[in-house]
Structure formats: structure tokens, C-alpha cells
Amino acid sequence: MYVVIEGIDTAGKSTQLELLKKKLPTAIFTKEPGGTPLGIKLRAMALDGEAKSKIAEMFLFMADRAEHIEEVIKKYKNNTIISDRSMLSGIAYASTLSIDELINLNLIATNNTLPTHVILLELAPDELKFRLSQKENDSIELRGIEYLINIQNRMKETIKRLNLNHIIIDASLKIEEIEKEIEDFIND
Ligand SMILES: Nc1ncnc2c1ncn2[C@@H]1O[C@H](COP(=O)(O)OP(=O)(O)OP(=O)(O)O)[C@@H](O)[C@H]1O
Ligand SMILES: Cc1cn([C@H]2C[C@H](O)[C@@H](COP(=O)(O)O)O2)c(=O)[nH]c1=O
């Protein structure tokens, strides 16, 4: 089982992953970007905002993804894998290119490996604004509310186009309510 937890910045992914770690002690927990030794370097390069070209930035994330699929997802394919982000983020955040172009590129990077379960935490604009105001923002978060809501819409559209097994959860529900929805979806 290859489960991915998705959502725009501050949607509550890390909060839910911490709860899942306690419930699934034998599962492999991983993340994109930065789930491998090479990925840690690529993550720093992608997030420091140095890339002037949006295409260069996208390829940094794609290189991370290709390494992650090879070194983690395929290697541990007989285990339960829970990943913080996936190619869905790759397709959604690279918003200067079309979803169709990005699906093709990402299927190359992932060698056609798709998640078996997608959990999308969906944030309303007001809640996103509040949560971003509560933290120091990185170069991507500084792009603002409108940018991030567009990314969230692209995530939903990509899930539809790839016909992925998924659940969309209102990220403003109580933490325990979200936890229960995730548990039911994974165990179904
Ligand atoms: N259900 C919730 N209701 C209210 N606040 C929440 C909820 N879940 C998480 N939060 C809060 O929202 C903030 C962002 O949560 P978290 O770090 O889990 O998000 P994230 O999706 O991992 O973010 P990022 O992608 O930016 O790392 C934290 O302050 C967290 O305590
Ligand atoms: C995989 C991926 C991620 N991003 C963005 C999304 C976030 O702003 C950061 C990752 O940080 P987090 O701690 O996981 O929230 O990078 C992106 O732009 N493109 C991607 O492919």
C-alpha cells in the first residue's frame, strides 16, 4: 500500500502524520522533497528560492521524486508506505505548465508508479490566510493565498484526471475528526 497525504502548505499534513506514526509503528514514513540523501540536497536547492527559472525549480523537485521512487517507494513496495507529498504536489505546484504536460513528465520520473491511496486535506482561503500568518513563510508560501488555492484546485483536478483512489477531507475539521476519516479510508 502506497499512501500519500497531500495538501497545500499548512493544510495539516505533518499533524496527521505524527498521529499515524503512533498507530502504524511498522509502516515506512517518508516524504517529498527530501526523503533520500540526494533528496535532502535537492530539497534545500529547490526551497532556497535561488532558481530563477520555474522550469529549473520543477526539475529539482522531479529529480528528488525520481530518486525517492527508486530508493524508497520501489524498494519497500511490500510494506505500508506513507508519504508526505507525492507527484500530485509536483504537478500542482509547477503551475506555469499544463497538468497534461506535467502528468507525462511525472510518469517518467515515477516510472509509472502511482499511489494506491491519496488523502487530500482541503483548506478554505480564510483558514489558509490565518495559518500562514502564524508562521514564518518560505519562498513558496510567500507567493500568497491566491497562488496556493490555485495549487489546491490543480491537485483536485490531477486526482480526477489520474482517476486515483482518494478522499478529500475538510482541513478545518477538528484534528481528531480528520484522524478518524484517514483511519477509516486506509482500513477500508
Ligand atoms: N485540524 C486542524 N485545525 C486547526 N489547526 C490545525 C489543524 N491541523 C493542523 N493545524 C495547525 O496548522 C498549522 C500547520 O499544520 P501542519 O504543520 O501539520 O501542516 P502541513 O500541511 O504539514 O504544513 P507544511 O506543508 O507547510 O509543512 C500548525 O500550526 C498546526 O498546529
Ligand atoms: C513535492 C513538491 C513540493 N513543492 C513545495 C510545496 C511546499 O511549499 C514545499 C515543500 O515543503 P513541505 O515541508 O513539504 O511543505 O515545496 C513544490 O513546489 N513542488 C513539488 O514537487
Topology, pairings included?
Blueprint lengths: L1 E5 L6 H11 L4 E4 L5 H11 L6 H20 L7 E4 L2 H7 L5 H11 L7 E6 L2 H9 L11 H18 L3 E5 L4 H13 L1
Parallel strand pairs: 1-3, 1-4, 2-3, 4-5
Helix pairs in contact: 1-8, 2-3, 3-5, 4-5, 4-7
The protein binds adenosine-5'-triphosphate and ligand LXEULUCI.
Ligand LXEULUCI binds next to helix 4.
CATH architecture: 3-Layer(aba) Sandwich
Number of discrete domains: 1
Number of separate strands: 5
Largest sheet: 5 strands, parallel
| Estimated helix fraction | 40-55%
- Within the CATH hierarchy, at the fold level, what is the topology? Rossmann fold
Q: Bound compounds, please?
A: adenosine-5'-triphosphate, ligand LXEULUCI
What fraction strand?
5-15%
Please tell me the overall pLDDT. 97
End-to-end separation in angstroms reads 12 Å
Query: What are the secondary-structure elements, in order, as H or E?
Result: EHEHHEHHEHHEH
Shape: globular
* Cα radius of gyration in angstroms: 16 Å
What structural category arises from helix and sheet content? alpha/beta
EC number: 2.7.4.9
Function: Phosphorylation of dTMP to form dTDP in both de novo and salvage pathways of dTTP synthesis.
InterPro entries: P-loop_NTPase, Thymidylate_kin-like_dom, Thymidylate_kinase
Domain Thymidylate kinase-like: 5-182
